[in-house]
């Protein structure tokens, strides 16, 4: 069965590649991320510089040029067509205390821009320090606690804009 993949290069150029086209490529794997390709009697050196499998994005260096490539299969296209998005940020607007405890440290300020998985605060509970990380990229709207505050389970800690 011939599968079709849609690709977008540098957020500008769109291509369709199918498994038949791929099987016709003359490719020699030099190492896990380096390849030698022959296409139309031309030689190309390809290196996969970065890869993010979850977001299906790759940074590929061909000879001396670097390209950012997105690859979408049939399922990705169907999800997009249905109005859903792949890899969108989570829409969590607040963080509540997962358990009762003591706020040991607050690593952010109101108005600060944070990235997903940034450390926001440290909550001590049952003699353990629990790092509360950002669930998404965003801007801090409010901080409802201060250092050394005692909090109850489900108490509001932080709100995002």
Automatic annotation (TrEMBL):
It comes from the Bacteria. Coiled coil: none annotated. The keyword Zinc does not apply. The keyword Iron-sulfur does not apply. PROSITE patterns: BIOTIN, BIOTINYL_LIPOYL. Keywords: Biotin. Pfam families: Biotin_lipoyl. Residues 83-161 form the Lipoyl-binding domain. Gene3D superfamilies: 2.40.50.100. This is Acetyl-CoA carboxylase biotin carboxyl carrier protein subunit.
